[in-house]
């Protein structure tokens, strides 16, 4: 991959989109992870206003610390970067108190609630500052295994890195001089209030899932593989099928014209 040219291409695309949309710049939620670090740096390189928002919800201390340090690094290198923190822990706790307790899928539903509270917060800041919400999803997450929250981190105005695989995001991170602490950290969505990684949840690493995505695109089937490769391919296909509703447009029930007469 021609990393420098890819960075230039994305930055120019971002600048063009802002000009056409008659907005002022970007708002990005900073999690302390690689995707938000790369996305925010690309937005900062446009020279347009960038608001970095921290939105902890019972967050692990290491994640919060990495987010702080990344924003400080951005502000030391780019004059167009501002920051704000909105601690959503109290809002989340109030929500938990307001809903009936249940053991049925509650952990996952509450994890998705965290993402949706953050989306609402980002759009609040976007609205009052005439900014665009820049998404941080990459290709394998957004279009492969659907590892994002519908109307949570999937609710954005534009997606600068959604055509890049996770391994390609890391290549951009090195070129952009993202801190080693973020590059070396295990990927995590941070939605469960603990240190579980993305691989813990998915059952496979991102390089493995990217391989499976490529094999699927080539028309391969699980019968083509054995051992770990067969296991990974099955994981990818299962996740891909289960999360197609996130990737595809919302289905619309079209009413035949003759029924409207």
TrEMBL record:
<comment type="similarity">
    <text>Belongs to the NAD synthetase family.</text>
</comment>
<dbReference type="GO" id="GO:0009435">
    <property type="term" value="P:NAD+ biosynthetic process"/>
</dbReference>
<keyword id="KW-0436">Ligase</keyword>
<comment type="pathway">
    <text>Cofactor biosynthesis; NAD(+) biosynthesis.</text>
</comment>
<keyword id="KW-0520">NAD</keyword>
<dbReference type="InterPro" id="IPR014729">
    <property type="entry name" value="Rossmann-like_a/b/a_fold"/>
</dbReference>
<protein>
    <recommendedName>
        <fullName>NH(3)-dependent NAD(+) synthetase</fullName>
        <ecNumber>6.3.1.5</ecNumber>
    </recommendedName>
</protein>
<dbReference type="GO" id="GO:0005524">
    <property type="term" value="F:ATP binding"/>
</dbReference>
<dbReference type="InterPro" id="IPR003694">
    <property type="entry name" value="NAD_synthase"/>
</dbReference>
<dbReference type="GO" id="GO:0005737">
    <property type="term" value="C:cytoplasm"/>
</dbReference>
<dbReference type="GO" id="GO:0008795">
    <property type="term" value="F:NAD+ synthase activity"/>
</dbReference>
<keyword id="KW-0067">ATP-binding</keyword>
<keyword id="KW-0547">Nucleotide-binding</keyword>
<dbReference type="GO" id="GO:0003952">
    <property type="term" value="F:NAD+ synthase (glutamine-hydrolyzing) activity"/>
</dbReference>
<feature type="domain" description="NAD/GMP synthase">
    <location>
        <begin position="7"/>
        <end position="247"/>
    </location>
</feature>
<dbReference type="Pfam" id="PF02540">
    <property type="entry name" value="NAD_synthase"/>
</dbReference>
<dbReference type="GO" id="GO:0004359">
    <property type="term" value="F:glutaminase activity"/>
</dbReference>
<dbReference type="InterPro" id="IPR022310">
    <property type="entry name" value="NAD/GMP_synthase"/>
</dbReference>
């Amino acid at each position: 991959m021609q990393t420098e040219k890819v960075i230039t291409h994305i930055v120019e695309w971002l600048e063009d989109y802002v000009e056409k949309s008659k907005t002022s710049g970007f708002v990005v939620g900073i999690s302390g992870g690689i995707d938000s670090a790369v996305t925010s740096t690309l937005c900062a390189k446009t020279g347009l206003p960038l608001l970095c928002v921290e939105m902890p919800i019972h967050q692990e201390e290491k994640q919060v610390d990495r987010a702080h340090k990344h924003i400080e690094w951005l502000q030391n290198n780019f004059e167009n970067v501002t920051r704000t923190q909105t601690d959503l822990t109290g809002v989340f706790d109030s929500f938990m108190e307001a809903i009936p307790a249940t053991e049925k899928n509650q952990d996952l539903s509450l994890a998705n609630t965290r993402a949706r509270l953050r989306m609402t917060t980002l759009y609040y800041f976007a609205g009052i500052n005439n900014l665009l919400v820049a998404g941080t999803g990459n290709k394998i997450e957004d279009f492969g295994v659907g590892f994002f929250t519908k109307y949570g981190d999937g609710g954005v105005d534009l997606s600068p890195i959604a055509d890049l695989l996770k391994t390609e995001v890391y290549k951009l991170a090195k070129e952009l001089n993202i801190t080693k602490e973020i590059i070396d950290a295990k990927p995590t969505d941070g939605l469960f209030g603990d240190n579980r990684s993305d691989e813990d949840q998915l059952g496979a690493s991102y390089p493995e899932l990217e391989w499976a995505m490529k094999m699927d695109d080539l028309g391969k089937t699980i019968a083509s593989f054995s051992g770990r490769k067969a296991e990974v391919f099955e994981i990818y296909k299962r996740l891909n099928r289960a999360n197609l509703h996130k990737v595809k447009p919302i289905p619309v029930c079209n009413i035949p014209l003759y029924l409207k007469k």
